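Inputs:
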Amino acid sequence: MAIREGEVQEFTLEQLKHLVSERALRGETILLNMGPQHPSTHGVLRLLVELDGETIVSVVPDIGYLHTGIEKHCESKTYTKIIPLTDRIDYLSPMSNNLAYVMAVEKLMGVEVPLRAQYIRVILTELQRIASHLVWLGTHALDIAAMSVFLYCFREREMILDIFEMVSGQRMMVSYFRVGGLWRDVPEGFEDAVRAFLKLMPSRINEYERLLKRNPLWLQRTKGVGVISPEDAIAWGVTGPSLRGSGVNYDVRKAQPYSSYDHFEFDVPLGENGDVYDRFMVRIEEMRQSLRIIDQALRRLPKGPYITPDRKVTPPPKEELAWSMEALIHHFKFWTEGFSPPPGEVYHAVESPRGEFGVYINSDGSPKPRRVHFRAPSFVNLQALPIMAKGCLVADLVAIIGSIDIVLGEVDR
Amino acid sequence: MGAVKEPVAVVAGQKTGEMGVALTTLEEALEWVAAWGRTRAMWPLLFGLACCAIEMMATQASHYDLSRFGMEIMRASPRQADLMIVAGRVSRKMAPVVRRLYDQMTEPKWVIAMGDCASTGGVFNNYAIVQGVDEIIPVDVYVSGCPPRPEGLIEGILLLHEKIRRGGIRSSR
Amino acid sequence: MSIQEVVEAVRTRFGEALQEVIEFRGETTLVVRRESLVDLCRFLRDDPACRFNFLSDLCAVDYWPERPRFAVNYHLYSLPHNLRLRVKVFLEEEDPVVPTVTGIWPTANWHEREVYDLFGIRFEGHPDLRRILLPEDWEGHPLRRDHPLVVEPVQFSFNWREIDSRKPYVRE
Ligand code: SF4
């Protein structure tokens, strides 16, 4: 399809008649376009806002400006080669995406993962959760004009990225988990690096909290703003901290534990009012709980293999290629053709920093999937934006968008 | 190694890129001043598309500190910006918007394509993604990587500074 | 509550309309007829034995070239009972229409728009069935399996020139 220069998609009022109120048609309220290039929409979100004075009457999100066709792309790749694509869906938490995807394939293949790999997966996904919440906190605070928090948050995030770089060689797009385990064992010095981080972080979290929690400006901008009731939140499929901010206790890690999350003790923080402030407090508390999980996992980190010995889903070890013809053939077959799961379909969900991240795989028995679908939490959570924003002031809109913590890569996939 | 020993002053001049200029004519003097002005305070457009935008934010934030190059102010309005960092993949739906933003920027203006997606389409050779942002707007510097490290972006910016310095006053880009 | 009891409850209530029950890797799939989909979903949500009050996900699958060609999956979750269930409807290529479930779970709204956008499956009774991810004037439905993925050939050194000459660069 050719690109028509300078032709930005426009809507006529006729097309949107059923989405705005009657008064907009009579010209009593203002229709305002926001985005797709706007500093506080966290990417390329476009909103059509209907305003009565300064009060929001309705919000109509228009998404798809980052549609990447990842689901289609997956159909043309073998199961192993899809892993790097999953990184790029929710680019603030590649580890969680990797985890959801490889666990879905493991379910499909019926593979057991060694305990060491499971524990390392837990450590890394929890580090990722903290990193993601740090970016959220920094940008969210920046939107509500608290500049310094942004600088602090990115300082700590660099420590986590250094750990990721240590294990995988990349700062962001890690692709570290493999079907059946991990790419490699964690390098020497990994445990020390994580310990150093664990030691430093609690005081830093207290610092962020002190900066904001009792700050009168912050309270005015967040308390009682963007409220969503528990019933609405469930009906609209909201998950993650946005749901727990309304007081609904649903966390996939607790409800349906995966990757041995049931071995660790942690609490699920809950809010009460379902406003921006509660969602903020839930995420801050979640960071502390993540530290708790990492600490336990690190203490009890078992020795052993880091990937399953099942040769169906793993390539043979490099040393074996030197003397074994079979291993060489297997290596070649594995990387060119891939492995073939039995026909069938599975759905596996994990708790990503934004909520329930699910992967649906439909296999036709060939080395490439028939269909891969990602249940992206941001996509669903964003749907609840019009409900949260109704009746708020237009300035609160950025606070509300920030508080549901959307990642546009995941919304549009 | 038969390297010729150069005078220290010239080496220092090459390093900073300004002392070696001999001010012979008025035009050259003006050019030097213009390049100096253009490179010392570039205002990038605050405009993130995808994953690369997070690395761009990391570049601005405390650890890498882009303000060392006079670029700490990101302008949210294209009319106040003179550098567009296309950070991320450009979808077919977004392409006209990017083009319009570029058209709205005032001359002189420059473009950095940050990341593989903006440069060539990257891993996404499919129906939804524009195969390189150079299909819709002219690009000055391509930065490779998926995502490029902050150091990579900084190098791209320094390269662009170099290009501007060599460009002269009358070339708008 | 266990998933077997849910399946039994549905079987006694709907009988014929429940075409098949599939067990695979510990997941249960109910294949149902299109006509009774909405009733069945409402029953699953409201019946005290089921209480599937949370629609996790909704997606379509293209089985091309097999027939029936399309299937729509509803991934349900029950918060009170902590159970997961998949409901599946098969659709023929000539008539890709399903009744909407937005009246039961409002969250289905965008999911259904996405399926409409990418597969061209229409949802009867949907309040706002527009394209969601692709531009309004896009032609075709890219996630159908007979739609090509790649729109641009990959450039190698031997064909670089030729492809490059066709590329729509902006040249000033
Ligand atoms: S180059 Fe990589 S990191 Fe950058 S936008 Fe593309 S996929 Fe994301």
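The two ends of chain B are 40 Å apart (CA to CA). Flag for discussion at group meeting.
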